[in-house]
Amino acid sequence: MKPRILLVFANLITSIFLVAAGARTSVRQRTQSNNHGNISDLLDNLLRGYDNSIRPDFGGPPATVEVDIMVRSMGPISEMDMTYSMDCYFRQSWVDRRLAFQGGKETLALSISMLARIWKPDTYFYNGKHSYLHTITSPNKFVRLYQNGRVLYSSRLTIKAGCPMNLEDFPMDTQRCPLQFGSFGYTTRDVIYKWNSARQVAIAEDMKLSQFDLVANPTANHSTAPGFSHAEYSMLLVYFHLQRHMGNFLIQVYGPCVLLVVLSWVSFWLNREATADRVSLGITTVLTMTFLGLEARTDLPKVPYPTALDFFVFLSFAFIFATIIQFAVVHYFTKYGSGECYFISDLSDTESSNEEEDVTRRLIKNQPARRKSSASSTTRGRGNRNLAINGDSMIEVIPLSAISIPDRDPAVPGHWQISCMTCSPPPAPRQMPPQPQPQPPSSKRATSSASRRRRRRTPRYNSVSKIDRVSRVMFPLFFLTINLFYWYAYLSRSERIHYYNSNTA
């Protein structure tokens, strides 16, 4: 009997616990159902007789819409289209007393389906190009309802807006990209926009731009009158001040331009008889500079004014072109009869030495006639150089315009050329050149051989123009001076942006 009594007692206790648990579950379900029912009834009561086509406080003061923006990212920023894009949370808040309620909850998070049943402002962007709402995985927007009837409407937008840019200081410019928005249909009598006093435009801490730095984002309230209507419309403005980075342009444009200009100066150290070398160097640098200047403007619009980068490219091009003009001037004075020694011949064989000795003998025979001609020209005030033989039996050449060039002997094969070293001052008119003494044939051959050896050991050099010597100093100094003025003029502009004055409507 006792085991049966204990079993019955245990079953009874278990039944009591099950009944109690079921009662608590039922109470909780009834409570949740009542809460759901209360909220549903609350919303139904709020929307009963609600007309979403009529603004709040219709017939009274205008409805005030407070706006704030949270910028998550910005870019790309296009100079070709003069537009910029940004991803942001666009929040609007207004008070609709028809939606005020009393209850235990201070805030109601509503479904986005409620937006179709309540009034909301018809906000649009004045300078918008192509903006859209994010809809993955569902439309990115929400609605909050407060007890006093305040509605908070937030949405995630990607806004592409126009940005009129002034590229005169490019790439040292700072652009002011505006964002203008307001009501499309309601005038200031019905809806007024203003910035949220607690937060206006917030920038994400991790936001970075590739070519710009966001240095400021001032805001302003404004009212405007469209051309099709004389009524005023409330509008809010925010300007994003973007300062461009210089590093990319220093590496890709400014540095190569400077190196090309310096490369063109190498021609000042080339002898002026190297016509092909100097001309080819000048043409190569000009063509490279032309390509670099065109490549620098590929990402820029065809603006009707020159930019700072255009000025520098043109400056570099002008210096490179000036080196070619400089060589043309040098080459103009490098010609026969200019009075400068510049032709050097290398007498490396016996035949050329014999030819030169033959020319020497012919010139010595005509020496008295040339001396008379020199004396007469001196009387007229036109002094010319005379032919002289130095101690090493080297011929010093006078200007070719003052003497007649002897004819080449057609019986002797090959060509002869006058050798030229440093021109010495003309000898005194009364001094007679020493007459060669007759020597035996063996002595003559020994003297000729020794003279050839001395000529081969004589140091030779290329002629250098005085214009080249001056250009080696003047071109770098002038280029450095213009660069200092250029960088100072563009980098010292402290007022490249005029901030919008919110006091002016």
UniProtKB/TrEMBL annotation:
Transmembrane segments: 249-270, 279-296, 311-333, 473-491
Domain (Neurotransmitter-gated ion-channel ligand-binding) ranges: 41-246
Superkingdom in the source lineage: Eukaryota
Composition skew (Basic residues), residue ranges: 362-373
Organism: Temnothorax curvispinosus
Signal peptide start and end residues: 1-21
Stored PROSITE patterns: NEUROTR_ION_CHANNEL
Compartment list: Postsynaptic cell membrane
Protein name according to UniProt: Gamma-aminobutyric acid receptor alpha-like isoform X1
PANTHER family the record matches: NEUROTRANSMITTER GATED ION CHANNEL
